[in-house]
């Protein structure tokens, strides 16, 4: 079967096409819908098996990144998304999508302004928006369905200014799904956390962009003979989960 | 933290007591919110784990404690405030009764100082760093009251008495309205209105000023120019067009006629490209100026019905260590200009979702009062969806933002020389962009184009509706009903609506039967639209407002009525070299130290800290990044975008040199064209399919010597383009980049030519980069090693700059052998024989080798000697190591193919990649320098690894 995947676009979402491309390479059939369409036609969720909140700057990051869409979800769509998850369907939020999932309460913790992790300047200094590549490995014990096909660490870019994950140590331990490796923590996140899952393992939020490493030529050291860590494996994990359930 | 650090850099003595500057975001509602409304809003938006929130009734004091001082800054009414709009939307989502919202910021200073000392600090930092009178209001130590627009009645249409005015009166009218029209032009307008027996309306005179402005009609590039001896110069724009026609490349699909140049790319898409300047706005409001510069050039690409896929920028600033006391009145500090411009570019590019790729940053004293901001946009246009053109009866539909009093007279503003009051008079001419709206407009347009819903399109740039509708209606004419245009607020005069340069608006021509479908597309994407009228067939442009005629002009007079400007140019002569000049023995003796200095030179050093603020990964097409190599921190020659659906890549190379144009503008132009092409070729672009864009930023062309340099530069460009068979497809000039100081001193920028080369990488999997790959490989120099070089490329070099001399020699110019050399190099690349390749430009061979070693984190050992292995003379060595002559590249090849490559390129073997972390250069048995890669990196990046 080909799982049908909804990619949600709010005003300011801008990685919707990148995510849709990754999903189709992974074997899903993506459809980009606006927040407005999702609100007026929640039926779309019943007809789909995957839900992805793509990255960007929804509503220009006003009132905190992801907060306006988070509010829309918690007020108008939380029951529908709850049922979607109860049906066993996986949900993914990337970058601004992660911020939306946190703000809507679908994932625990908070995301705030990047701080340096002591590599480039004094600890605790705000570093602002940064775009660079990181290495992201699954937490071995995570119940997350998305990371099950991730055999080797994913290498992919980040592009954010508010990705520092803040939560209590036990939430980090219980819900951490992906961690920055090799000292590549780009934002000062607690426990080097790059991705968080919920208690079902179906909902995953992460700051980096695996959708921007789905072709080997996208790797920055492709010309040096390095082609490893495709982010495509993350999307394949989601697709495999849906296909296995039939 | 960054703010306090910037403040200390800018005002070191004043800020010795400064602790931190803490920023608080302020949200204002235009009515009192009750307790439950406040609770709803803060519950929804304040994350107590990371944020705090307080509510204040304005009018009641707030005790912010002792030892602290603060300022509050808010955007002026009418300045775009998307965050404020979002706050109001949040209230709507929560079911709170409607309110209007605006935003501001509070900056709280902690300091050991108090009293007058603290106040001086707060005021200096606020003026120098935080507040810009053009877009915001400020209050010190008290709560700011944000003004909301109240209903205001609209002024009507004014008639401007013009007929029978004397020459002096006409010029006075041009000056008082800021029309920037000269006497011949004013007289032509007077003659026209006398012939139709009426005076113009305010809208007509403003529209003519805008249509005939330097910015829109390129008077200088179309002018009748003679040299002082009477010799006639072919009009500059014609020279550029003729050079393109001479080359007659079949893959050029549109050159010089549309909003952007268009060339063939692959079997699915053509490529569209445009590079613009936004210099004057960026000088007075760096964030907003650069921000709307990016937004504007993206609209140029939307304006040829293409989908934008990347943005570029080239930035020219004054020296960052300029003392704040030395600045002329009204000039912002280069550091503030840089930070504002960079943030403005990042804000627009990142939010609209385009990778910001190719770029360059240079510094020069001449840019202190006149910073330059070049912004480019690359797009893809699906083959088979070309537009048919507007027809009589097609509707005029505007999409996007509402119209306000933004950017009024931007076109004429940019055509004037600036002075200390420019910041005040230009108040309305700079805006802050709204990339989210433009993204929605772009998505809607893409869908509407794919459904073939519109027949013509253009952007609302300088001149707003007036220029957009005027352009499409140039031959057809149109009936426009301005009442239909949605306004941001009341109180606009009709001429202001017609001329407003409010951002994020596009105009399309829609066959009437497609209006319903357009409405559906706009609704889905949340884009506002309005129907402003229809196209006629008789060429007359008629605009009405509230039933009255606002404009009634024939397209022929608007677009062809301007008298051709007559100009005289003086042939430039190269200034004599300075008295102190370089001493070759000394240069070679301290070559290692000089290399480190050159790596830290402002035209060479790494600008990674800037580039990392830009998202260069979005869309997944960026395979040639701004920084590359083993640790992704080495310099790249060109950016490459391979759309995920394509097997090919689009290459963007840039050429720029601000150090040599004042010495020899013609040679500078030849070299800059060569550099842009060479950068593209270095990463694998096919030299047989490279298109060029020219951007001239110059001083006031009414000064004969300035015009002379411009003429020579254009001639140099055309000669180089023809030699390389690389046609120009698009260009833009920004003139009058001069500044008159308080003491009446005139300051001009250095002649600045930016050439953008757009090439095609035939196989996206065969990208070449500059970082060295493997120890044992051989390094070859392509182009002159030292024979035939003489002292070419040393004058105006980075070497002379760090030596602080103006030495003898020729500035870099063209290289006749380069076009064929690049073609043979490309064939070798296609055959897979080239491992890495880097151009030799700023800093010469020695800097190029250092950059290749840093990128690959592998050592390089060079030996530059006579054929028999003898040591070279010092003079010859200086040329070989430091010359910036054109046409030269460094190649890395595997040892078993080195002989073949040497033969086919007439290249010289100069060394090897070595398994050591050192760059070493020798001449025969004489060691010239030995520097560790770590040392190179510290010098180039400005900090330890």
Topology:
The complex is a heterodimer of chains A (246) and B (945).
Chain A: E1 4-9, H1 16-25, E2 29-34, H2 35-40, H3 43-46, E3 50-53, H4 67-86, E4 91-94, H5 96-103, E5 110-112, E6 130-138, E7 154-160, E8 164-166, H6 169-175, E9 176-180, E10 193-197, E11 203-206, H7 232-245
Parallel strand pairs in A: 1-2, 1-3, 3-4, 4-11
Antiparallel strand pairs in A: 5-8, 6-7, 6-9, 9-10, 10-11
Helix pairs in contact in A: 4-5
Chain B: H1 2-10, E1 18-29, H2 35-45, E2 68-75, H3 82-93, E3 101-111, H4 115-130, E4 136-140, H5 167-176, H6 183-195, H7 202-211, H8 214-217, H9 219-222, E5 224-227, E6 232-233, H10 236-247, E7 252-254, E8 261-264, E9 269-277, H11 279-284, H12 286-302, E10 307-317, H13 334-352, E11 356-363, E12 372-382, E13 395-400, H14 410-413, H15 422-425, H16 435-450, E14 456-459, H17 464-472, E15 478-481, H18 494-499, E16 505-510, H19 515-525, E17 529-535, E18 540-545, E19 548-554, H20 555-560, E20 566-569, H21 584-589, H22 591-599, H23 608-611, E21 622-624, E22 627-628, E23 634-635, E24 639-641, E25 649-656, H24 665-682, E26 691-697, H25 704-724, E27 728-734, E28 738-740, E29 746-748, E30 752-761, E31 778-782, H26 798-803, H27 818-830, E32 836-839, H28 844-856, E33 859-863, H29 874-882, E34 889-893, H30 898-905, E35 908-914, E36 918-923, E37 926-932, H31 933-941
Parallel strand pairs in B: 5-20, 10-11, 15-18, 26-27, 33-36
Antiparallel strand pairs in B: 1-3, 2-3, 2-4, 5-6, 7-8, 8-9, 9-12, 10-12, 13-16, 13-17, 14-16, 15-17, 18-19, 21-24, 22-23, 24-25, 25-30, 26-30, 28-29, 31-34, 31-35, 32-34, 33-35, 36-37
